[in-house]
Amino acid sequence: MVLSDKSIKQQLEQGRVVVSPLDPQDIQPASIDLHLDRQILIFTNSRQPYIDVKESLDNLTEIVAIPGDSPFILHPGEFVLGSTVEHIELPDDLVARLEGKSSLGRLGLVIHSTAGFVDPGWKGHLTLELSNLARLPITLYYGMKIGQISFLKLTTAAERIYGSESLGSKYQGQTLPTPSRFHQDFDKSG
Question: Which residues are catalytic?
Answer without folding.
Answer: 129
